[in-house]
């Protein structure tokens, strides 16, 4: 093939750039010379130019295989801007009708079309294969090539069919491109595409401008996120959640707090998804709350934060998603919320999948958990995962480096680990090695007679997490490595052998325990948010005085969680008080005045700064169902009939009614109570509630004895709260 193009002139002519970035020029020249190419280039590195420019210069049409319809449209629009002829680029996918496909084919046959974007599903259609066999193909570009690998974070089985289809159409050079791939995934991609001898170009994975932080996921996660966004107002950000339900709920919470946010997930209508993506790019909205369906190929350089509400399923996915922050080299905060319960949920999702797929999924999850729990520099961990070493001890731009933990000497521990890996013939993973060290008699260890090893139980006084930290940090230090073909199996490197003969100092930092978090630092850029203990006590005292004056139990006025929120958020007007969970308009007007005055006095006396963003509004959850329940009770519809009509259990209906009355709305359910309960029972429970200090259900059941059912107590409690408090 002719490789005598003036690439710099062409680059300026088509794309307006004066020079190439990093290895772009070499990649393009290699492809122009007719060789297969493998490109590993992080997000924002300029991958698409590596196939777009050669396609414009070469004879024939380049076939670009891409996984997302929305991404194809954006790329085709961008290429059309480089030429006066709209026919220069087209896509074929399920969104086109027959006449549109005929027009695309006509442009290809006439030689006008230089780039044809296709989804792998469209490529497998017999009619498209037949058509493309008649076309001069310049080369095949496989974008987002990690989709080929089951070890990649976005595996798509259709990608496995690409090589056989290329062979059916016609042979031409192949360029595979991805922003994220471990050595395991890279090998998988090249094998599957039949390009084992491809020229490989690998850019650095280091993004120095990105700040990485992993935070414990507590019940205040929504509040943390809202505060962070309000303190970074006007900045663009993406929040990733694992489920569509969580996406929609969080979007509603953000919108309620005057944040310009929209949801994005695969269950939405495609036109709405496209509009949301366009609104984000055009800055009509600031925040996208999305499942991982969003962002692949998104070309927005100034995303300033990427928040993971849930821990991602793999470190590759995490790197790809965080990589959407700060593509212009500016600020990019990558904040992830983590607790081990999320891991258990993700493992449950895997049940029912093929065993091999489950094994891969669990291995990838383990890598993510190890990253989250580690106190080592996060940049060092990420780069090591992708086969790149980071020489500095402190990057200065991650939570672990900004708040470094004390290192402890672990030379003897590492010696034991290496001895066990060698004694077990380098055939086992970290969990197995750890179990030998702590002396855990698992079936597998007993079957292999590894309980007979000298090292069995040698580390039984050391915590599990310490052993895993030793192994993880020995991998980073180069004393151990993971087998590529049998991923996760530990091998001892030459450095490890040398260490065993002549041990040197080896220090580690112990992992964090996210299930036992006490002091939580505020998110970068966010103010601290904690209950003001002095104010909380004063609010409780005020509630107690009022309860005596009004002759009602304290909980009837405001429940403890409402007081805690007041002592955190400092509401000073009746309107602000209504933003407190469990405080409706009626309750705020009836009792709120004294509480607001007390809070105001406290703030003035102690000069409490009350940032605007602390007044977090909660969403009136399922407000439609609540309104219809109130209307049905007004019409005296039997409660069990209301539950049936709403498709919910009777207990769930009582949950809804309790939420309504506790936040200050009066409901009269006497008509139903009279129907289903004896008068004597009603008066006994009512009297108990009037004299009790607590409205706790278990305490009531214990005090009242077995003659009264849980449902009876709940019904009377609703009547009591409604009459006494509202």
CATH architecture of the largest domain: 3-Layer(aba) Sandwich
Cα gyration radius (Å):
31 Å
Helix content: 40-55%
Bin the strand percentage. Answer: 5-15%
Low-pLDDT segments: 525-529
The CATH C-level name of the largest domain is Alpha Beta
Mean pLDDT across all amino acids: 84
| N→C terminal distance | 84 Å
Major beta sheet, strand line-up = 3-4-2-5-6-1-7
CATH topology of the largest domain: Rossmann fold
Characterize the biggest β-sheet.
7 strands, parallel
Q: Name the shape in a single word.
A: globular
- Tally of separate helices: 34
* Count of discrete domains: 5
Structural class: alpha/beta
Task: Describe the structure in brief.
The protein has 726 residues and is α/β, with parallel strands linked by helices.
Question: Could you please describe the fold and organization of this structure?
Answer:
- It is built from 34 helices and 17 strands.
- By secondary structure, the protein is α/β, with parallel strands linked by helices.
- Helix 23 packs across helix 27 (585-605), helix 30 packs parallel to helix 34 and helix 32 (679-691) crosses helix 34.
- The termini are far apart.
- The chain is globular and about 90 Å long.
- Strands 3-4-2-5-6-1-7 form a 7-stranded parallel beta sheet, sandwiched between helices.
- The model is unreliable at 525-529 (pLDDT under 50).
- Helix 13 (315-322) links the parallel strand 12 (303-308) and strand 13.
Task: Give the helix/strand layout.
Elements: H1 7-15, H2 24-32, E1 37-40, H3 49-57, E2 61-65, H4 69-80, E3 89-92, H5 98-109, E4 115-118, H6 120-123, H7 126-132, E5 137-142, H8 162-169, E6 174-178, H9 183-193, E7 199-202, E8 210-216, H10 221-231, E9 236-240, H11 244-256, E10 261-264, H12 270-281, E11 287-290, E12 303-308, H13 315-322, E13 332-338, H14 340-350, H15 355-373, H16 378-385, H17 399-402, E14 408-409, H18 411-423, H19 430-438, H20 443-447, H21 464-477, E15 480-482, E16 490-492, H22 494-501, E17 507-508, H23 533-550, H24 554-557, H25 560-569, H26 574-577, H27 585-605, H28 623-634, H29 639-646, H30 650-662, H31 670-676, H32 679-691, H33 697-704, H34 710-725
Parallel strand pairs: 1-6, 1-7, 2-4, 2-5, 3-4, 5-6, 8-13, 9-11, 9-12, 10-11, 12-13
Antiparallel strand pairs: 14-17, 15-16
Helix pairs in contact: 2-3, 14-15, 18-19, 19-21, 23-25, 23-27, 30-34, 32-34
């Amino acid at each position: 093939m002719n490789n005598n193009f003036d690439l710099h002139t062409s680059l300026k002519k088509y794309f307006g750039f004066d020079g190439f970035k990093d290895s772009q020029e070499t990649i393009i020249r290699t492809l122009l010379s007719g060789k297969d190419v493998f490109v590993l280039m992080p997000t924002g590195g300029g991958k698409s130019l590596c196939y777009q420019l050669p396609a414009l210069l070469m004879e024939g049409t380049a076939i670009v295989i891409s996984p997302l319809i929305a991404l194809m449209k954006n790329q085709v629009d961008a290429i059309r801007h480089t030429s006066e002829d709209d026919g220069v680029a087209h896509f074929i996918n399920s969104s086109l009708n027959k006449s549109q496909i005929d027009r695309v084919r006509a442009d290809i046959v006439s030689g006008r079309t230089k780039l044809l974007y296709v989804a792998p599903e469209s490529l497998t259609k017999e009619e498209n294969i037949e058509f493309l066999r008649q076309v001069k193909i310049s080369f095949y570009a496989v974008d987002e090539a990690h989709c080929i690998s089951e070890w990649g974070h976005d595996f798509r089985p259709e990608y496995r069919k690409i090589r056989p289809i290329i062979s059916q159409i016609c042979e031409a050079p192949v360029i595979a491109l991805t922003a994220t791939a471990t050595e395991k995934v890279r090998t998988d991609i090249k094998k599957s595409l039949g390009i084992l001898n491809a020229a490989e170009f690998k850019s650095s994975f280091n993004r120095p401008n990105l700040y990485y932080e992993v935070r414990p996921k507590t019940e205040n996660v929504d509040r943390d996120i809202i505060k962070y966004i309000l303190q970074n107002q006007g900045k663009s950000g993406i929040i990733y959640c694992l489920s569509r339900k969580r996406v929609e709920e969080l979007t509603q919470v953000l919108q309620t707090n005057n944040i310009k946010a929209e949801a994005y997930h695969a269950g939405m209508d495609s036109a709405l998804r496209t509009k949301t993506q366009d609104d984000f790019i055009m800055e009509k909205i600031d925040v996208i709350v999305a499942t991982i369906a969003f962002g692949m190929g998104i070309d927005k350089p100034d995303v300033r934060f990427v928040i993971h509400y849930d821990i991602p399923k793999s470190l590759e996915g995490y790197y790809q998603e965080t990589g959407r922050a700060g593509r212009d080299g500016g600020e990019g905060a990558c904040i992830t919320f983590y607790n081990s319960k999320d891991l258990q949920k993700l493992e449950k999702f895997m049940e029912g999948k093929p065993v091999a797929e489950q094994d891969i999924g669990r291995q990838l999850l383990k890598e993510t958990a190890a990253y989250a729990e580690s106190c080592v520099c996060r940049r060092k961990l990420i780069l090591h995962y992708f086969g790149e070493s980071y020489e500095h001890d402190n990057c200065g731009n991650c939570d672990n480096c900004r708040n470094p933990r004390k290192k402890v000497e672990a030379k003897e521990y590492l010696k034991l680990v290496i001895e066990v890996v060698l004694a077990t013939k380098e055939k086992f993973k970290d969990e197995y090695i750890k179990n030998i060290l702590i002396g855990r008699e698992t079936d597998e260890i007993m079957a292999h007679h590894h309980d007979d090893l000298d090292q069995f139980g040698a580390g039984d006084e050391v915590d599990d997490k310490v052993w895993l930290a030793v192994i993880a940090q020995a991998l980073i230090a180069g004393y151990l490595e993971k087998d590529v073909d049998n991923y996760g199996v530990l091998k001892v490197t030459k450095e490890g052998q040398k260490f065993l003969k002549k041990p040197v100092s080896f220090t580690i930092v112990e992992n964090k325990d996210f299930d036992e978090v006490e002091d939580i630092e505020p998110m970068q850029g966010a103010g601290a948010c904690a209950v003001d203990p002095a104010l909380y006590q004063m609010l409780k005292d005020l509630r107690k005085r009022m309860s005596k004056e009004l002759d009602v139990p304290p909980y009837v006025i405001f429940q403890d969680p409402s007081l805690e929120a007041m002592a955190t958020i400092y509401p000073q007007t009746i309107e602000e008080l209504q933003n407190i969970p469990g405080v409706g308009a009626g309750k705020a007007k009836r009792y709120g005045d004294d509480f607001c005055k007390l809070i105001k006095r406290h703030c003035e006396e102690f000069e409490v700064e009350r940032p605007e963003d602390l007044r977090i509004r909660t969403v009136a959850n399922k407000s439609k169902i609540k309104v219809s329940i109130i209307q049905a009770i007004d019409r005296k519809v039997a409660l069990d009939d209301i539950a049936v009509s709403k498709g919910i259990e009777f207990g769930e209906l009582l949950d809804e009614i309790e939420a309504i009355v506790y936040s200050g709305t009066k409901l009269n359910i006497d008509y139903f109570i009279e129907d289903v309960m004896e008068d004597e029972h009603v008066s006994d429970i009512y009297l108990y509630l009037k004299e009790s200090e607590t409205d706790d259900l278990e305490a009531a059941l214990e005090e009242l004895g077995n003659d009264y059912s849980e449902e009876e107590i709940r019904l009377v409690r609703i009547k009591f709260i409604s009459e006494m408090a509202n």
